[in-house]
Design a protein that fits this description.
It contains eight helices and seven strands. The protein is α/β, with parallel strands linked by helices.
Protein backbone atom coordinates (compact mmCIF):
# COMPACT_ATOMS: atom_id res chain seq x y z
CA UNK A 1 0.00 0.00 0.00
CA UNK A 2 1.21 3.49 -0.84
CA UNK A 3 2.06 5.52 2.25
CA UNK A 4 0.43 8.75 1.03
CA UNK A 5 -2.48 7.36 -0.96
CA UNK A 6 -4.85 10.21 -1.94
CA UNK A 7 -3.13 12.73 0.34
CA UNK A 8 -2.74 16.28 -1.00
CA UNK A 9 0.82 17.60 -0.60
CA UNK A 10 2.00 21.15 -1.32
CA UNK A 11 5.76 21.68 -1.57
CA UNK A 12 7.22 25.17 -2.01
CA UNK A 13 10.47 25.25 -3.92
CA UNK A 14 9.50 21.90 -5.40
CA UNK A 15 11.10 22.63 -8.75
CA UNK A 16 14.66 21.60 -7.81
CA UNK A 17 16.90 19.90 -5.28
CA UNK A 18 15.39 18.51 -2.09
CA UNK A 19 11.94 19.86 -2.93
CA UNK A 20 11.81 18.15 -6.30
CA UNK A 21 13.06 14.81 -4.97
CA UNK A 22 10.51 14.98 -2.17
CA UNK A 23 7.76 15.74 -4.68
CA UNK A 24 8.81 12.72 -6.75
CA UNK A 25 8.77 10.43 -3.72
CA UNK A 26 5.47 11.76 -2.39
CA UNK A 27 3.87 11.33 -5.82
CA UNK A 28 5.24 7.80 -6.10
CA UNK A 29 3.69 7.07 -2.70
CA UNK A 30 0.26 8.11 -3.96
CA UNK A 31 0.04 11.80 -3.03
CA UNK A 32 -1.55 14.45 -5.21
CA UNK A 33 1.40 16.81 -5.40
CA UNK A 34 1.48 20.57 -5.96
CA UNK A 35 4.86 22.28 -6.34
CA UNK A 36 5.72 25.95 -6.49
CA UNK A 37 8.64 27.96 -7.80
CA UNK A 38 9.40 31.37 -9.28
CA UNK A 39 10.16 30.30 -12.88
CA UNK A 40 7.52 28.66 -15.03
CA UNK A 41 10.01 27.01 -17.40
CA UNK A 42 11.81 25.26 -14.55
CA UNK A 43 8.49 24.27 -13.01
CA UNK A 44 7.34 22.77 -16.30
CA UNK A 45 10.51 20.67 -16.53
CA UNK A 46 10.13 19.56 -12.91
CA UNK A 47 6.53 18.47 -13.46
CA UNK A 48 7.62 16.29 -16.37
CA UNK A 49 10.16 14.62 -14.09
CA UNK A 50 7.84 14.26 -11.07
CA UNK A 51 4.99 12.77 -13.10
CA UNK A 52 1.97 11.09 -11.47
CA UNK A 53 -0.28 14.03 -12.32
CA UNK A 54 1.62 16.56 -10.23
CA UNK A 55 0.79 20.19 -10.89
CA UNK A 56 2.81 23.39 -10.66
CA UNK A 57 1.73 26.85 -9.55
CA UNK A 58 4.17 29.67 -10.24
CA UNK A 59 4.83 32.13 -7.44
CA UNK A 60 7.34 33.68 -5.04
CA UNK A 61 6.99 32.74 -1.37
CA UNK A 62 8.29 36.20 -0.47
CA UNK A 63 5.02 37.61 -1.83
CA UNK A 64 1.98 37.20 0.42
CA UNK A 65 -0.19 37.84 -2.62
CA UNK A 66 1.45 34.88 -4.38
CA UNK A 67 0.94 32.75 -1.26
CA UNK A 68 -2.75 33.69 -1.24
CA UNK A 69 -3.02 32.83 -4.93
CA UNK A 70 -1.48 29.42 -4.23
CA UNK A 71 -3.99 28.74 -1.46
CA UNK A 72 -6.90 29.82 -3.66
CA UNK A 73 -5.77 27.55 -6.51
CA UNK A 74 -5.14 24.55 -4.27
CA UNK A 75 -8.43 25.08 -2.46
CA UNK A 76 -10.30 25.28 -5.76
CA UNK A 77 -8.71 22.09 -7.09
CA UNK A 78 -8.56 19.89 -3.98
CA UNK A 79 -10.56 21.51 -1.21
CA UNK A 80 -8.04 20.68 1.52
CA UNK A 81 -4.37 19.85 2.14
CA UNK A 82 -2.79 17.03 4.16
CA UNK A 83 0.93 17.91 3.90
CA UNK A 84 2.51 21.34 3.59
CA UNK A 85 6.27 21.46 3.15
CA UNK A 86 7.70 24.98 3.46
CA UNK A 87 10.87 24.21 1.58
CA UNK A 88 11.69 27.20 -0.67
CA UNK A 89 14.85 29.03 0.30
CA UNK A 90 17.76 31.12 -0.93
CA UNK A 91 21.41 31.17 0.10
CA UNK A 92 24.33 33.41 -0.70
CA UNK A 93 27.55 32.88 1.22
CA UNK A 94 29.56 35.92 2.25
CA UNK A 95 31.20 37.45 5.28
CA UNK A 96 29.09 39.82 7.34
CA UNK A 97 31.09 42.80 6.10
CA UNK A 98 30.19 41.99 2.49
CA UNK A 99 26.43 41.56 2.97
CA UNK A 100 24.32 44.17 1.18
CA UNK A 101 20.91 45.37 2.36
CA UNK A 102 19.34 43.67 -0.65
CA UNK A 103 21.02 40.35 0.12
CA UNK A 104 19.99 40.52 3.78
CA UNK A 105 16.39 41.41 2.93
CA UNK A 106 16.08 38.65 0.32
CA UNK A 107 17.27 35.98 2.75
CA UNK A 108 14.75 36.97 5.38
CA UNK A 109 11.96 37.60 2.87
CA UNK A 110 12.19 34.07 1.47
CA UNK A 111 13.67 31.93 4.24
CA UNK A 112 11.83 33.44 7.20
CA UNK A 113 8.92 35.65 6.17
CA UNK A 114 8.01 33.28 3.36
CA UNK A 115 7.75 30.33 5.74
CA UNK A 116 5.73 32.24 8.32
CA UNK A 117 3.15 33.63 5.92
CA UNK A 118 3.13 30.42 3.93
CA UNK A 119 1.93 28.52 6.98
CA UNK A 120 -0.42 31.32 7.97
CA UNK A 121 -2.15 31.40 4.58
CA UNK A 122 -2.19 27.61 4.12
CA UNK A 123 -3.45 26.83 7.63
CA UNK A 124 -7.20 27.17 6.86
CA UNK A 125 -6.85 24.46 4.18
CA UNK A 126 -5.05 21.95 6.40
CA UNK A 127 -7.15 18.97 7.42
CA UNK A 128 -7.24 17.75 11.00
CA UNK A 129 -4.23 15.50 11.51
CA UNK A 130 -2.16 17.18 8.78
CA UNK A 131 1.61 17.47 8.70
CA UNK A 132 3.67 20.64 8.30
CA UNK A 133 7.34 20.19 7.41
CA UNK A 134 9.65 23.19 7.59
CA UNK A 135 13.00 22.91 5.80
CA UNK A 136 15.69 24.59 7.87
CA UNK A 137 19.44 23.93 7.82
CA UNK A 138 22.26 22.60 9.95
CA UNK A 139 23.63 26.15 9.67
CA UNK A 140 20.89 27.33 12.05
CA UNK A 141 22.57 25.50 14.93
CA UNK A 142 26.20 24.97 13.82
CA UNK A 143 28.54 27.79 12.87
CA UNK A 144 29.70 27.39 9.28
CA UNK A 145 31.98 29.80 7.39
CA UNK A 146 30.25 32.73 5.64
CA UNK A 147 26.75 31.52 6.59
CA UNK A 148 25.87 34.31 9.05
CA UNK A 149 22.87 35.88 7.31
CA UNK A 150 21.60 32.56 5.94
CA UNK A 151 21.95 30.99 9.41
CA UNK A 152 20.05 33.85 11.01
CA UNK A 153 17.22 33.58 8.52
CA UNK A 154 16.88 29.85 9.20
CA UNK A 155 17.30 29.98 12.98
CA UNK A 156 13.86 31.55 13.47
CA UNK A 157 12.16 28.53 11.92
CA UNK A 158 12.69 26.30 14.95
CA UNK A 159 10.88 28.83 17.14
CA UNK A 160 8.06 29.08 14.60
CA UNK A 161 7.66 25.32 14.43
CA UNK A 162 7.62 24.77 18.19
CA UNK A 163 4.96 27.42 18.63
CA UNK A 164 2.87 26.09 15.74
CA UNK A 165 2.99 22.58 17.21
CA UNK A 166 1.18 24.00 20.26
CA UNK A 167 -1.07 26.43 18.37
CA UNK A 168 -2.39 23.66 16.10
CA UNK A 169 -2.78 21.02 18.81
CA UNK A 170 -6.60 21.13 18.78
CA UNK A 171 -6.51 20.23 15.09
CA UNK A 172 -3.86 17.53 15.71
CA UNK A 173 -1.59 19.12 13.10
CA UNK A 174 2.02 18.01 13.57
CA UNK A 175 4.83 20.47 12.83
CA UNK A 176 8.40 19.26 12.36
CA UNK A 177 11.67 20.67 11.05
CA UNK A 178 13.92 19.02 8.46
CA UNK A 179 17.48 20.31 8.77
CA UNK A 180 19.87 19.13 6.04
CA UNK A 181 23.62 19.26 6.15
CA UNK A 182 25.61 19.59 2.89
CA UNK A 183 23.63 17.97 0.07
CA UNK A 184 24.58 17.48 -3.58
CA UNK A 185 22.07 19.72 -5.33
CA UNK A 186 22.03 22.50 -7.91
CA UNK A 187 22.62 24.99 -5.09
CA UNK A 188 26.40 24.61 -5.47
CA UNK A 189 26.14 26.10 -8.95
CA UNK A 190 24.04 28.96 -7.63
CA UNK A 191 26.77 29.72 -5.11
CA UNK A 192 29.14 30.45 -7.96
CA UNK A 193 31.06 27.18 -7.76
CA UNK A 194 32.30 26.22 -11.22
CA UNK A 195 32.01 22.69 -12.55
CA UNK A 196 35.81 22.49 -12.49
CA UNK A 197 35.98 23.47 -8.81
CA UNK A 198 32.99 21.42 -7.67
CA UNK A 199 34.75 18.05 -7.14
CA UNK A 200 37.39 19.66 -4.91
CA UNK A 201 34.71 21.45 -2.86
CA UNK A 202 32.69 18.26 -2.48
CA UNK A 203 35.80 16.37 -1.30
CA UNK A 204 36.55 19.16 1.17
CA UNK A 205 33.02 19.01 2.55
CA UNK A 206 33.02 15.21 2.65
CA UNK A 207 36.20 15.24 4.76
CA UNK A 208 34.33 17.24 7.42
CA UNK A 209 31.38 14.86 7.59
CA UNK A 210 31.69 11.72 9.78
CA UNK A 211 29.70 9.77 7.17
CA UNK A 212 32.51 10.56 4.71
CA UNK A 213 30.32 12.01 1.98
CA UNK A 214 27.73 14.64 1.18
CA UNK A 215 24.05 13.82 1.37
CA UNK A 216 21.83 13.02 -1.59
CA UNK A 217 18.48 14.75 -2.22
CA UNK A 218 16.79 11.35 -2.22
CA UNK A 219 17.92 10.81 1.38
CA UNK A 220 16.34 14.07 2.48
CA UNK A 221 13.18 13.10 0.61
CA UNK A 222 12.97 9.85 2.58
CA UNK A 223 13.35 11.80 5.82
CA UNK A 224 10.56 14.15 4.70
CA UNK A 225 8.37 11.13 3.91
CA UNK A 226 8.85 9.89 7.47
CA UNK A 227 7.76 13.27 8.84
CA UNK A 228 4.80 13.41 6.45
CA UNK A 229 3.33 10.02 7.35
CA UNK A 230 1.06 9.50 10.35
CA UNK A 231 3.23 9.06 13.44
CA UNK A 232 3.81 10.32 16.99
CA UNK A 233 6.56 12.80 16.08
CA UNK A 234 5.76 16.48 16.71
CA UNK A 235 7.95 19.53 17.31
CA UNK A 236 11.09 17.64 16.25
CA UNK A 237 14.12 19.07 14.48
CA UNK A 238 15.46 16.19 12.40
CA UNK A 239 19.10 16.68 11.45
CA UNK A 240 19.98 14.80 8.26
CA UNK A 241 23.63 15.74 8.07
CA UNK A 242 25.78 12.60 8.12
CA UNK A 243 26.88 13.51 11.64
CA UNK A 244 28.39 16.90 10.75
CA UNK A 245 26.63 18.45 13.76
CA UNK A 246 28.94 16.30 15.93
CA UNK A 247 32.17 17.26 14.23
Amino acid sequence: MQLLQDKVAVITGGNSGIGKETAKLFAKEGAKVVVTGRRQDILDAAIEEIGHGAIAICGDVASVADQQHLVAEVGSRFGAVDIYMANAGVINLSTSGEVSEEEYDRHFAVNTRGVFFGVQTMAPLLRKGSSIIVTSSLAATKVLPNHTVYAGSKAALAAFARNWAIEFRERRIRVNILSPGPVETEILGKLGVSEADRPALERQLADLIPAGRMGQPEELARAALFLATDNFVNGLELLVDGGLSLA
